[in-house]
UniProtKB/TrEMBL annotation:
HAMAP family: HisG_Short (MF_01018). GO terms for molecular function: ATP binding; ATP phosphoribosyltransferase activity. The keyword Phosphoprotein does not apply. Keywords: Amino-acid biosynthesis, ATP-binding, Cytoplasm, Glycosyltransferase, Histidine biosynthesis, Nucleotide-binding, Transferase. This is ATP phosphoribosyltransferase. It holds the Pfam family HisG.
Amino acid sequence: MTELTIAMPKGRIFMEACKILENAGFQLPDDMEETRKLMIAIPEENIRFILAKPMDVPVYVEHGVADIGIAGKDVLLEQQRTVHELLDLKISTCYIASAGLPNTTMNEVAPRIATKYPHIATKYYKEIGEQVEIIELNGSIELAPMIGLADRIVDIVSTGRTLKENGLVEYEHIADVSSRLIANPVSYRLKSVRIQEMVSRLRKCVQ
Ligand code: PRP
């Protein structure tokens, strides 16, 4: 059986990603969700998992050190990497939206947008014909309008709790997000039987 290396996103998506793999019949170690190990081998399946930051999953897959991976559509839209998107797993669903303080309009001269998705934000405001300055942050994006750093944020909304608890409201819905199974194009060719088998097992578990 050909060996497969799978890049898994640590953090929020991880549990749901493990669950769908288990539903598809992959035997994961009992401590998969608690371990601090970054590489986990499952010899019976001839699979090796690497546990990466969600933003880094497409990097490992593009470089071919992972054959396949599970990545959020937000990350794929942001990075535009050369990977094949094989399947929408329909897990970890959320969306990208713009948000800001209630009843505010954007500064007419130089509106500022805080985000950890500079590419998505730039593309969106270009499409709607707004000239904006993008301020790239790494997290806690909701702080930006509260302390006067930005007019709007472009960020993920899942339950909406972070916006609500920080007194922000949504303005525009930008894109729907869910986790996708992605593949390195060369692996997809060389290991097609193995990868296709995995896709069909997972497809049956997509709800
Ligand atoms: C994400 C996102 C929002 C929040 C949305 O942040 O950037 O802040 O989750 O979720 P909610 O709608 O359910 O409240 P994350 O927790 O990943 O942390 P971050 O601030 O470091 O980006």
